[in-house]
Every structure is written in C-alpha cells, then in structure tokens.
Amino acid sequence: MPTISLITAVLAGRDDHLTQTWNSIATQQLPPGWDWQWVVQEDGETGSPATRIPTNHPQITYATGPRGRAAAARTLALDHVNGVFVRGLDADDQLTPGALTRDIEALTSNPVGWVVSPALDLLEDGQIKRGPRDPETGPLPDNCLRDGEEAGLLPVLGITTTTYTSLVHALGGWPALPVGQDVALLLALEAVAPGWMLGVPSILYRRWPKQTTATRDASQPVINTPGMRSIGLARADALRHLQWDWTKITTINTTVNTAAAVEA
Asked: What is the extent of the structural domain holding 257?
C-alpha cells in the first residue's frame, strides 16, 4: 500500500501543542488504497514528548537522538520513513482537513517532483490569517521561489512542502542550518524538479512564544541572517550549474509514480 510519511521534529519543553498536531493527522481522509505514517523524532533523548501522543499506534514511530536542532532531527527521522512521499510537520502546527489527499492527488496527477501550499497563521488570540504572497495555483515558474528568497520575499512556507522520499534522500536531507532548513531543502528541490502550487491551505502555522524558529532557547531570539539565506541559495545554484535533474520513471501499485534523480 503506498504511504505518505510525515516527519515531526520535537524538543522537550516545546511540545505543548503536539497532541493537537496528532489530532489533525488522525482526522485526515486519504484516497482509497493509501496510508499515512507519522515519524516523531525528538531532538534529544528525554522521551517526555512521547507522553503527549499514542506511541503504541501502528502508524506512529517515536525516536530519540542527540541534540542537533530540527535539521538533524528531521534527517535522522528519514531512517524510519517508509512512504513514497514525505512532508514535514512542525510540532506546534496542524494539518487542515484534506491536506494529505490534496498533496497525493497533485503529485500523482502532475509531472512534478514536489508540491507546496498556502499556510494560515494561527495567532495566540485564535485569529487566523492567510499569507500575503501566495503564488497562483498550478505549475510554479522556474526560479520563482529562488528569486523570492533572494529578495527576502519567499512566497510560501518551506514546511508546506511534500515531495518524493527518494528525492529528499538524493539531496542529502535537511541541511545543517539552525533555522530555514526547510526553505533550503525546498530551494534545492526547485533546482532539480518542477513543482506545483496548491490553492487550498494545508497547515495552521502557529505563532507563539516557544516557536522554535523564533528562539534558540527560552530567552534568545534566532535571526535568519543573510548568511543563512545565502547557503540555501548557493546549494540551489550549484545544482542548477551541475545540471542535475529529476524525472518520474516507474509506477507503484498503478496509483503513484516513483522518483529518481539522474544526471542530465
């Protein structure tokens, strides 16, 4: 049975909303014949976030590992992933109804290697706001995201990306950046494969004081500096220069295509 896998990196002490994240997965309706898998990778080895979710559920894997921030945790989680597709999901965010079905349908129906979607900001007072720069629905123009990131105006959130697991492996997983690793992976995906923009938001993106993209620890802010941005841009540009390309080559269970990265 083809599977879509979700990876959540979680840090003890910042797992307040993990149960709500789980609830948003548990209520997802998938296309016939599809299954989901949730890999929760703790950035650390306390085991305490596991108390917030049903770790005995057959579709949930909970793993621990040395502290290394979200990029390391997500990449470690790949060892447990068994899905043909994979997407990240932050421990404080929630999937919207139908999010996984829309991802699967877009990837199986179009000659693309990845999809992104709008996000809804979930504010502390309960207000929900949509992003101001969502691209048009459909195939994304080449360099659309790269150019937006270079200008400091990336039109989507990297955490909305769903792609082929094999393609994430081929690109080396999430780069070792303290923040913005999902954006850097997305830029690399754009450099080697066409992408698709969905029209319906896929996540509620929580804005709150313990947001890990906003804090190093309980008191120190993290700044996504131009230097961090340039690392992701440089990798994407290098992939384009090397002309490393992706193609969809075979069929799995008559419903989904696998991916392979090949040199052009």
From this structure: 3-263
